[in-house]
Structures are given as C-alpha cells and as structure tokens.
C-alpha cells in the first residue's frame, strides 16, 4: 500500500509527503537522493542500502533515516522477498526532535515493528495536515528513544554477529544464555561478548534486555487488555517484579505509569 499526501502544509513544523506499508520493495537508485527525509524499515526479509560510501544491512526490525538529497541505493539481499515500510516527510522541527544531530543517515535497531506499523495505519486514517504533523512528531520521538548502531558487512565476524542479533530478535521471549549464543556463533563466550560489544556497543544480554523492554513498551501501548504480569511473560521475563525493576531503571517510571502516559 502506498499513500501520497497532496495536502502538505510546509509551514507546519512537520509534514508528511508519502507512506508505504507492507511494500514489496524493489531495487532503487537515487544518485541525487530524495527531496524529503526518508524513513525505510524492513518488516520481512532483508535488504542492503549503500549510502555515504558504506554498505549497510537492513534486516527485520531495523530501519534507516536518510536526510534529504543524500545519494543512496538499496536492493533485496539473499531473501525471497523484502518487505518494507517507509515514510517521507519534511519540516524544520526534525533535527530539533532528533537532538540536533547533523546526519546523512542514522540506523535504528531493535524496532518493535508492530507498534510502528500501528502508527502508520493510524496515519492513513488521518487527513488533516495538523493531525499528521502531530503523528509524525510522535513517530520521531519513538525513533529518538532508540539507540543507533551502524552495521557494516565487511567481514565474516560481522555477518556472524548479525546472525546472533537476529536470533535475539526472533527469540527474545524465550530463555537465552550467552552460552547458547556463543554456540550459534561458533565463538567462545568471552569472544562473543567482546565482539558483539565492539559492533553493537552493548553486550548480548544488555541487547536482549533492551529488546525485551522495547517490545514491552509496544505491548503496553497497543495491548491495553494485557496486565503487567502477562506483558512480562510475553517478552521473556520470568518475574514481573524483575521486569518492573528493569523497566523503571531504564525509563525512570514504572510500566503502569508509562501506560497511563500513552
């Protein structure tokens, strides 16, 4: 599905130009870039984007935000299909929301795709430019809350670590140990932790905990019928009290308080 918004009000701090959801992504080459900010997220399969002299992997739950007029190209990579979601938008407020980071691109990992897809479906039901501006604002706040990591496909170790990360993203609700991850990678536990932290800036268990918390956030917002115990169990915590403690340590509020705010 592709939606183009023709009633853009460029006097607003944020405005939406187009949206694509559950898109069978074709190969794209843009030597002049795109005239608006461009968000591209993988929802199924994986792709590769070439930008600023780098080849970047876009597996499931990973997205990239490109600034206007930045040359890039992307294509499907080693999967039968590559489905994406994308937004194109503009506005003077974008950099302010993203903490004034001058960027050509930013990679975002560990994205709770159900929540972001839900955001896009909300957007398609809105027609007023001011309401669209508010929804883009919320979307950017969500992105700003995610840590950024760039994944380069420059050696076999990196590809192996991406496989470990993808395993975490697919099985975060299950019991996972460093020993099990090391077995998948063919590394010792110490080597896995060291190499994973070099690439992703966190240890595998820190990545797993953050992934669980982000998916818990999505469930707190999108599944109001679930209680805290059920959410803790769904995202992989054996103890709801431990989940609450981890959530509060990361977000400075409890899950119940977070739900009330959203």
Tell me what the structure shows:
The protein has 10 helices and 10 strands. By secondary structure, it is of the alpha+beta class. The strands form 2 sheets. Strands 1-2-9-4-7-10 form a 6-stranded antiparallel β-sheet, covered by helices on one side. Strands 3-8-5-6 form a 4-stranded antiparallel β-sheet, with no helix packed on it. Helix 2 (113-124) packs antiparallel against helix 3, helix 5 (178-185) packs across helix 6 and helix 7 (204-222) packs across helix 10 (255-261). The longest helix is centred in the C-terminal third of the chain and has 19 residues, at 204-222. 31% of the residues are buried. Residues 147-154 have low confidence and may be disordered.
What amount of the residues lies in strands?
15-25%
CATH class of the largest domain: Mainly Beta
| Silhouette | globular
What's the mean pLDDT score? Answer: 83
Q: In the CATH classification, which architecture of the largest domain applies?
A: Sandwich
Number of helices: 10
Secondary-structure element order, N to C = EEEEEEEEEHEHHHHHHHHH
- Count of all domains: 2
* Unreliable runs: 147-154
CATH topology annotation of the largest domain: Jelly Rolls
* Cross-sheet strand order for the largest sheet: 1-2-9-4-7-10
CATH superfamily of the largest domain: Regulatory protein AraC
State the helical fraction: 40-55%
* Structural class estimated from helices and strands: alpha+beta
